[in-house]
Specification:
By secondary structure, the chain is mostly beta strands. It has one domain (24-181): Electron Transport, Fmn-binding Protein, Chain A (Pnp Oxidase, Chain A), CATH 2.30.110. It has helices at residues 65-73, 86-91, 103-106, 164-167; strands at 29-34, 40-45, 48-52, 55-58, 75-80, 111-113, 120-122, 127-136, 142-151, 170-173, 178-181. The strands form three sheets. It has a seven-stranded antiparallel β-sheet with strand order 2-1-5-8-9-4-3. A two-stranded antiparallel ribbon has the order 6-7. Strands 10-11 form a two-stranded antiparallel ribbon. Strand 10 (170-173) and strand 11 form a beta hairpin. The radius of gyration is 17 Å and the shape is globular. It starts with 28 loop residues before the first strand and ends in a 9-residue tail after the last strand. Bound molecules: flavin mononucleotide. Flavin mononucleotide (FMN) is lined by residues 41, 43-48, 59-61, 64-66, 90, 93-98, 103, 172.
Length: 190
């Protein structure tokens, strides 16, 4: 995808340069899916974002088991990895379900099937978007429609809404290859 050097000579962070997809990363996703035998899989995805009000886009390599699963099941889940689940979330980004059939078990996760889409909900991850496949575009981006969002009660704030300071999602820093915690409120917007 990109070379090891984070910035071309003379460029600074935020410049519009080749490889600038390294910057401005949002929460890193865990993508959940079922294979044709109904076995759950999950993978790490940093190259993904909100695409429209109720749509998401993912850039997934064709070699991943998840990519094949999404094409056959026409669905997937997207969860935020969190400070508390970062080790397992990293594991599913290193090991492929093509080689390890019990990847979810080895990650220490349990799943239940979404009631809305044909995809697994990872019970240890507190916020999950349940998505159905809309299309795969000419550049092979996977576009999904969010049909439901499930949130664990433990991360709802006093107003009953998901609270970032309780979820404590992590993002991926592709410059230094680290996971970085999000979730500190610094000011009110609007
Ligand atoms: C921090 C991190 C971010 C990643 N982001 C992506 C991504 O956006 N797209 C992608 O195709 N692979 C990405 N990967 C690689 C997959 O998560 C990895 O190859 C995984 O083992 C695929 O699993 P599967 O074959 O079971 O689907 C990432 C890995 C890590 C560690």
């Amino acid at each position: 995808m990109e070379g090891k050097s984070p910035l071309p000579k003379g460029a600074s962070a935020g410049d519009r340069v080749e490889g600038s997809s390294r910057f401005y990363k949002r929460a890193r996703f865990t993508v959940g899916s079922y294979d044709e035998a109904g076995r759950p899989d999950a993978m790490n995805a940093a190259w993904g974002a909100i695409y429209d009000n109720d749509q998401v886009v993912l850039c997934l390599d064709k070699s991943h088991k998840t990519t094949r699963n999404i094409i056959s099941s026409k669905a997937f889940t997207l969860s935020f990895a969190t400070v508390d689940t970062v080790t397992s979330a990293d594991y599913v980004g290193i090991v492929s379900g093509n080689k390890e059939q019990d990847k979810i078990g080895k990650a220490g996760w349990t799943v239940k099937m979404s009631t809305r889409v044909n995809a697994p909900i990872i019970e240890e991850l507190p916020l999950v978007m349940e998505c159905e496949l809309v299309r795969i575009d000419a550049e092979e981006h996977i576009i999904g429609k969010i049909v439901n969002v499930s949130v664990d009660e433990s991360v709802l704030g006093e107003d009953g809404k998901p609270d970032y300071t309780l979820i404590r999602p992590v993002t991926y820093d592709p410059v230094h290859f680290n996971y970085v915690a999000l979730g500190n409120k610094v000011a009110r917007a609007f």
